[in-house]
User: What shape does this take?
Amino acid sequence: MKTKQSLTLGVIAAALMFGLSACADMSRQDRDTAIGAGAGALGGAVLTGGSAIGTVGGAAVGGVIGHEVGK
Assistant: This one.
């Protein structure tokens, strides 16, 4: 189980890094939304033990928070 959780976190971290590299021409609010979604996905995965629903839910909540903070 620990191997699966470590692999999930590694994949999420790699996707976050690749995704953020595409943020060069985004507005500040769009960038904050993407960063919030990535951080939320990572947090959701950690808190739920790698559950897909927890990861997606964390991404959704993090994206909303990042969008609102960026205003």
The chain is about 80% helix and 0% strand. The radius of gyration is 12 Å.
